[in-house]
Each structure stands twice: as structure tokens, then as C-alpha cells.
């Protein structure tokens, strides 16, 4: 079996995402990517109708197999609902997700297609994170405040050289799980003593 026959659609998408991180969207073209991978452009066009189709597929792959998958895995691996955000942070760091996110955001600065994909991914992520913050014991106002702080830390740090530090900033924004509020004891009013003459 020829190498081209073994090069799957997913292989192309993974290679495309890696090329996006390394060299930006200019690398997402059939001929240079095929040369780099040691396959023919025929393999590329077997899986994608056009370069534009490939661009859309790479963005969809980033959303489903990177962003959504890490949340799904964090939910599966966390010991309790309150720990999902901690597990999400750990998996995000281990899988190098910040670099993919930063690459997509850089692409979005020059591409309407990428900008729409990033906007949709951010909206999905906000909804999921808001739900996870509620599960962590926060009320609606607290959850929204934490979410906005988290979004500012994550998106505002996209251009940092140390992408791992973005995970640290996000963890600081989220903070530890909330402890249940202690019930205040009802203190009976002390009778005031009349001043002595």
C-alpha cells in the first residue's frame, strides 16, 4: 500500500494544525504541506475539495478535537464536579492547547473565516466554563465575574511567548473551589448596662 493511501483525513488535519502553529496560515496550502509530509497533492485533494475546504476543516478540527475534547476528557477524569476545572487546566497544559489557541487567534486577525470560528469557539467555551463555575459552588453573579476575569486572562495573554503561563493565569483567575459558606450563629443581643453615676 502506498504512503498516500495510508495518509488519512485526520493525519492531514493534525499536520495542518501543527503547521498553523509553526508557520501560520500561509503554511496551510496543498503543495508545500504535501512536500513537507512526503506525500503528493493527490492525497490532499482526495480528502479536501479545495484549500478553502481544508482551512474550514482545520478550524473545525481545532474546535472539536482540541477544545471540546479536552473538556469532555476533563469531565471524565475529574473525581467530582468541583474538580473538573482543575483537571481541565492540567490537561490543557499537558496537551499544549494554548499554542493552538494562540495560532487560531493570530489567524483570526487576517481571516474572516478564522475570526468566525474563534468567535464561535469562544462562545461555546464561555457557556461550558460558566456551567463548570456554577458546579464549583458559585452563584450566578460570582460565576459571571470569574468567567469574565478568566476570559480576560486567557484571551489577553494569547501573545505571550510562554504559552504555558496562560494556563497559570487562567487558574489564578478561577481560584480554588468555593467552600460552602458557614452558617452564622444567631447572637442574642446583650443588654446594655447603664453607666454608673
Structural key phrases:
197 residues; mainly alpha; Tetracycline Repressor, domain 2; 0% strand; elongated
Task: Please describe what this structure looks like.
This protein has 197 residues and is mainly alpha-helical. It has one domain: Orthogonal Bundle (Tetracycline Repressor, domain 2). Helix content is 69%, strand content 0%. The chain contains ten helices and no strands. It has helices at 3-6, 9-23, 30-37, 41-47, 51-77, 84-94, 97-108, 112-135, 140-156, 164-174. Helix 8 (112-135) packs antiparallel against helix 9 (140-156). The termini are far apart. The relative contact order is 0.10. The mean pLDDT is 84.
CATH topology (level 3) name:
Tetracycline Repressor, domain 2
Record field, number of beta strands: 0
Biggest sheet statistics:
none
> Percent of residues in beta strands?
under 5%
Please give the radius of gyration in angstroms: 24 Å
CATH homologous superfamily caption: Tetracycline Repressor, domain 2
Tell me, what's the shape? Answer: elongated
| Average residue pLDDT | 84
What ranges have pLDDT less than 50 throughout 5 or more consecutive residues?
Answer: none
Distance between the termini: 108 Å
Amino acid at each position: 500500500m502506498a504512503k498516500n493511501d495510508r495518509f488519512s483525513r485526520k493525519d492531514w488535519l493534525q499536520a495542518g494544525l501543527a503547521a498553523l502553529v509553526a508557520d501560520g496560515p500561509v503554511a496551510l496550502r496543498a503543495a508545500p504541506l504535501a512536500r513537507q509530509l512526503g506525500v503528493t497533492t493527490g492525497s490532499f485533494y482526495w480528502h479536501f475539495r479545495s484549500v478553502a475546504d481544508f482551512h474550514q476543516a482545520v478550524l473545525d478540527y481545532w474546535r472539536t478535537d482540541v477544545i471540546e475534547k479536552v473538556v469532555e476528557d476533563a469531565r471524565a477524569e475529574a473525581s467530582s464536579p468541583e474538580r473538573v476545572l482543575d483537571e481541565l487546566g492540567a490537561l490543557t497544559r499537558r496537551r499544549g492547547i494554548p499554542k493552538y489557541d494562540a495560532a487560531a487567534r493570530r489567524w483570526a486577525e487576517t481571516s474572516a473565516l478564522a475570526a468566525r470560528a474563534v468567535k464561535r469557539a469562544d462562545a461555546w467555551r464561555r457557556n461550558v466554563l460558566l456551567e463548570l463555575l456554577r458546579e464549583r459552588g458559585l452563584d450566578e453573579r460570582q460565576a459571571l465575574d470569574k468567567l469574565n476575569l478568566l476570559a480576560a486572562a486567557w484571551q489577553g495573554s494569547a501573545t505571550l511567548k510562554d504559552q504555558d503561563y496562560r494556563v497559570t493565569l487562567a487558574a489564578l483567575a478561577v481560584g480554588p473551589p468555593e467552600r460552602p459558606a458557614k452558617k452564622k450563629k444567631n447572637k442574642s443581643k446583650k443588654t446594655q448596662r447603664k453607666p454608673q453615676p
